[in-house]
TrEMBL record:
<protein>
    <submittedName>
        <fullName>Uroporphyrinogen-III synthase</fullName>
        <ecNumber>4.2.1.75</ecNumber>
    </submittedName>
</protein>
<dbReference type="InterPro" id="IPR036108">
    <property type="entry name" value="4pyrrol_syn_uPrphyn_synt_sf"/>
</dbReference>
<dbReference type="InterPro" id="IPR003754">
    <property type="entry name" value="4pyrrol_synth_uPrphyn_synth"/>
</dbReference>
<dbReference type="GO" id="GO:0004852">
    <property type="term" value="F:uroporphyrinogen-III synthase activity"/>
</dbReference>
<dbReference type="Pfam" id="PF02602">
    <property type="entry name" value="HEM4"/>
</dbReference>
<dbReference type="GO" id="GO:0006780">
    <property type="term" value="P:uroporphyrinogen III biosynthetic process"/>
</dbReference>
<keyword id="KW-0456">Lyase</keyword>
<dbReference type="InterPro" id="IPR039793">
    <property type="entry name" value="UROS/Hem4"/>
</dbReference>
<feature type="domain" description="Tetrapyrrole biosynthesis uroporphyrinogen III synthase">
    <location>
        <begin position="39"/>
        <end position="281"/>
    </location>
</feature>
Length: 312
């Protein structure tokens, strides 16, 4: 994921903020639900002045010893699919490493070199090429929907398609392929599970419903599902949804990540490019725009989260 680079002026006062040592997110508190690359996202936010409340809503469990992954790998080695869809870089690398551990690495790479290999985005493409393979195609949008459209346009009837799962089922994707007549083989490389320590998640939930955070970021759909599920377990889901509907900005890295929130009627904001940097840049635009400004005794007071700016 790209760094945000220069954020630029925010609401016309970015240069004033930089001169006084305040970033465009000064005064705002942002919750981070990510498990992977949470430190990187937190650093990007803090660099722009935000306070960060880190609460990983899930953990990634590799399945190097999992019988399902081994069975799927052997199946692919024994009977080549027509298409293999690689969805995440960490998952693809984990798959190759697990196959090496079982003594199937060379056979798997040889087999993958003979199929139509599709990579969901540039990071996956990098992992594919690092393994000595070449992808046939990669969508510009990094969207599984675009991958699905391409496959359906090509025609999937009678084709065998292996899909590297990225921690949660892909029911819409898989069902559409099966309805089109394809045989679909799932490759479960790792799973998302709730965090072992729920304390940080509970603190984030408490902060959200009490408006102690100004935004909550989501970089995966499972994180959104996990946070909503924990809110439900604690009997505070209606309060959380109300907070997201008014005072706490839910910011998602992309449309797939936003689906669980949208299913609950929550409107989210998303950057045009599905990366950490553009996500932070979006917050640098959205949060200051939501700040309340008041003229007081000839001065301009701006309420920004837990802070107040006087004349910028």
């Amino acid at each position: 994921m790209d760094d945000v680079g220069d954020v630029g002026d925010v609401d016309g006062r970015g240069e004033d903020l930089r001169r006084t040592g305040h970033g465009p997110l000064a005064g705002f508190t942002v919750g981070v639900t990510a498990a992977r690359r949470a430190d990187e996202l937190g650093a990007l936010l803090q660099r722009r002045g935000a306070d960060v409340l880190h609460a990983p809503a899930l953990r990634i469990v590799p399945l190097a010893d999992d019988s399902e992954l081994m069975a799927a790998t052997k199946d692919i080695v024994d009977r080549a699919p027509d298409v293999v869809v690689a969805t995440t870089a960490i998952g693809f690398r984990g798959w190759i490493e697990a196959a090496d551990g079982w003594g199937l690495g060379d056979a798997l790479l040889e087999r993958l070199g003979t199929v139509e290999l599709l990579a969901r985005g540039p990071k996956v493409k990098g992992a594919v090429r690092a393994a000595g393979l070449t992808e046939r195609w990669s969508p510009a949008s990094e969207s599984m929907a675009e991958v699905l459209d391409r496959l359906l346009e090509e025609g999937v009837a009678g084709r065998r398609i292996a899909v590297q799962l990225h921690g949660e089922p892909l029911p819409g994707f898989v069902e559409a392929l099966r309805e089109g007549g394809a045989e679909v083989l799932g490759v479960p490389v790792y799973r998302w599970l709730p965090p072992e320590d729920l304390g940080p998640v509970d603190r984030l939930l408490d902060a959200a419903v009490s408006r102690g955070v100004d935004a909550v970021t989501f970089t995966s759909a499972p994180a959104a599902v996990s946070l909503l599920g924990r809110a439900g377990e604690r009997g505070m889901l209606p309060e959380l949804l109300a907070a997201f509907g008014h005072d706490v900005l839910p910011a998602c890295v992309g449309p797939v990540t936003a689906v669980p929130l949208q299913a609950h009627g929550v409107d989210t904001v998303q950057p045009e490019r599905f990366r950490l940097g553009p996500l932070v840049q979006l917050l640098c635009q959205e949060l200051p725009a939501r700040a309340r400004a008041l003229p007081v005794a000839g001065h301009r007071l701006e309420i920004r989260g837990h802070a107040v700016l006087v004349d910028a």
